[in-house]
Amino acid sequence: MIIVTEICKIELFEFFVTSQSFCEAMVSRYMKQLCEAISYLHRNNILHLNVKPENILLDENSTLKLINFGSAHRMNEDSVIYWNRGTPEFVAPEVVTSCQVTTGTDMWSVGVVTYLALTGVSPFAGETDQMTLFRIRDFDEKLNFKHFHQISESGKDFVSMLIVMSQSSRLSADDVINHEWMASSVEKKLETERLKYFQSRRKWQRSLLTGKSTLTIRSMTSLLHGEYGSTSLAVPRHVIDDVTSSTTVTESEDEEPPLVPRPNPTPTIQISSPLTSPAVERREIFKAGRSLSGSMERPLQLKEDRSKPPEGRRLDLLQVGKKNNESKQHHLVGRS
Known about the structure:
Elements: E1 10-11, H1 12-18, H2 24-43, E2 46-47, E3 56-58, E4 64-66, E5 73-74, E6 81-82, H3 93-96, E7 100-101, H4 103-119, H5 129-137, H6 153-160, H7 173-177, H8 193-207, E8 213-214, H9 220-224, E9 238-239, E10 268-273, E11 276-283, H10 292-295, H11 317-335
Antiparallel strand pairs: 1-3, 2-5, 3-4, 6-7, 8-9, 10-11
Helix pairs in contact: 2-4
């Protein structure tokens, strides 16, 4: 059996930051294509549940493609679906709180992606994954539009109709396609500096996926309760001894929050002295959550009092000189 798939070479956001004509109208055109894809899924009773920039690609004709259906669920008439996994910045409140998910769950993610595309700012990103989830869970329906000074009123309305706590109050995919912003003709060029920074951050996180590594899917509940510690935008990896492929992982990156490097081992400094042996070891231990001045344990005493040589090793230079002279005289006498 041969499986033939498309090759999509560029992510939507990468296309945005490299485009010389990036503007609000361009964003609205591609968001319309995204919503048409989601509308098709919803009409066929499928929830995607993982809408985020990395899963939105463009083909060689610049046609949008929604990928990665690893989290997708099929809806039945009497089914109730619960889902609490994903990338923290883009999940809906009902995912954070492990409540029932619906078609509105995908539309929340569309709203976050649109907000990010227009401003370069991730609306709920916090210092840690846990803080990000707190912001989503406790959202008070008041979006921060301070970065929307270049955006039209219809663009603001579009986003505000999707990032809503109540699932039933969010626009459906079909409603979004008919929203007035989808016909936006605002060609004013948008700034891309913040969006470039976002792209750089995500690329750095993905670059940490190296050989002999595996990803572990974590639920939003466990992250919300801080079971994995205060990891800034990331979670640590675990090394597998028998994995050789540099691309082999147990699950897709798309089910995983971004990554941070494994912590380095405690640094050890060896200091040698001509008067002491073996070398003295100094270990500096830094404790998380404390300032540098208060985080270092008292090191071993490294200073040596050179005014008092170690017992049994005192060197008397006069005695050494005297013995050398006696030895020379002894040799001379022997020769005579």
